[in-house]
Write a structure and sequence with these properties.
Layout: E1 9-13, H1 26-40, E2 46-50, H2 52-62, E3 69-71, H3 84-87, H4 92-95, E4 99-104, E5 116-121, H5 138-158, E6 163-166, H6 169-178, E7 187-189, E8 212-218, H7 228-233, H8 235-239, E9 243-249, H9 254-266, E10 273-277, H10 281-290, E11 293-296, H11 305-312, E12 316-320, H12 325-329, E13 334-336, H13 341-352, H14 355-369, H15 374-389
Parallel strand pairs: 1-2, 1-4, 2-3, 4-5, 5-6, 6-7, 8-9, 8-11, 9-10, 11-12, 12-13
Helix pairs in contact: 11-14
Length: 392
Amino acid sequence: MEMRKKEKFVYFDTTFLHYGEDLRGIPQVILQLVRLILECNDLGGIMFITTRRSYDRFLHPLGVPINRVERIPMIPFITDIRLHGVACNLRYWKVKRKASFIIHPEYRTVLKTAVRQLVLYYDFIFLDDFSTVKSSFPLKIIGKKLYRRYIQYKLSISCGAYYKISISNYSKQQLLRLFPSLVPSSVEVLYLGSRISHTKNIASKNPPSDDILNFLCVGGIDDPRKNIFNLIKNLIDIAGGRHFYLHLVGKCSSPYRKILSSLIDSLSLDKSVLFHGVVPDILLNDLYDQIDFLLFPSLAEGFGLPVIEAMAHGDIVCAFNNSSIPEIGGDAIIIAGNNDFVQWGKQISSLMHDPAAYRLLSRKAIERAALFSEDRMFERYKTYFMTTVTKN
């Protein structure tokens, strides 16, 4: 009697969404790939690895049927997204026997297997320590070192994946520096895209008509590499003596909020700096429409979505010349050396006295942001999958 071969599936790991509140970066890529699969495939050979939470919140609303789901439990006490990769391989022991292909847009989920894999590399910034305060607690130092070694081990395995995607040339170069034996052509660069764009049909913005400047800063407020502490210390110089409001949008822990509040009080800026926390897209859109400048003092970015979001609204972006920022912003942003807030202030003052130059830079920002729209991102991934992955 002839044995019937077991059906093989393409498995797409979407469990990263379990931890996601802010659908940017990797979560955004996951949802774009789900959308792509739903549009281009009849789902006959596709299975989605997910959790109850990520299915109910994200996959089901997109139209993923329950019979296309391989649902797995998550370990309850693992709530930190950085620990996602520590236990993630456990979910593959059953799956890999049934898989012909595994897609996981987060390299910490990679495993040793003969099954072909597609891995998306976001960035490797977490391997660098941007904190200016070094921990004196020995166990914490040992834990950091062990975690980094573990991630580097996972990265070395991931280099053997059949397909490798990076979200910027900067991230690709980081990967090639870490693993010089990699063939550069084996890593495809597919840029992210912004789903947030201006709500008004404008060709450019006009500079503020009075002496009150509206600044916005978007990102993880308590993340040391976002450099918010130094930004606040230099706000008065950046504004050049003008009255201003700085709107801070992003996650911030209570202890770090107290540190920033203390600094703000010492500088008498308590009425000028406004904390918004994490806000929904519609409110973030409104803020981008209302402000004059995005202040983006980050010291390292794998892509830098707030830069694109602000540019799409015609806002003038002030950033530093590091990592992927010049690659994404091009000549459509104000750029200075790391922590050169004085240069920011000079450029802002110059634009305030030259409305034509302000409008020109605003128009260039809108035009450049169009290259990184979410629709363009979708087309990039679709072209790659249709011409590369599905052909092999």
